[in-house]
Request: fold
Amino acid sequence: MSNDETEGKAKLAPSICIDFDGVLHDYQGWGTELRSPREPGLFLLQALQPLVERELIKVIILTSRTNHQEIWDWLKEYGIYNAVNLVTNIKMPALAYVDDRAVDGRRDANWIIKDIIALVVTQAPQARLMGKEQEMIDLALQLTNAAKAIEPTDPEGSFRGKPFMRGGKLLGDSTPQPDSE
Reply:
């Protein structure tokens, strides 16, 4: 393969964006010092490293932290420096985004709100430490009321007891479904 082909291949490689705090780093709240890696995130980068080295994919670390050099140093400390192409705070086009606070926006609005409520609930211990527990409870209640006000938009009735159904088949389920005739 010529040098030009190698450069073109690297430019066209699909990207995977991975959130730093909460996915790679054991995040304990905004503004915390860098800590040890989370095992799933560490294993993910270790698995992706050979693909990055062969320029089959690019790994982009997304962060709201301003000191990107600190993150590069952290990656080097844990031996996963070569598994990453870029550290940035700019959302880049990507094949996939890995984030501890992700909500799948392709779902019915009620399910999106339920997922947001679940994230609010998971933040309760941190809110308690910050003296904002009541604010989180109020937010969860307001989101619950918003979910009740929305009519289900999924023609298969995902909010009416058949979550993730399409054409009589549970999405992600490989079990054959009987044909409805």
The chain has two domains: 3-98, 104-154. Strands lie at 15-19, 58-62, 86-88, 96-98, 165-166, 169-170. The two ends are 55 Å apart (CA to CA). Residues 60 and 86 are 5 Å apart (CA to CA).
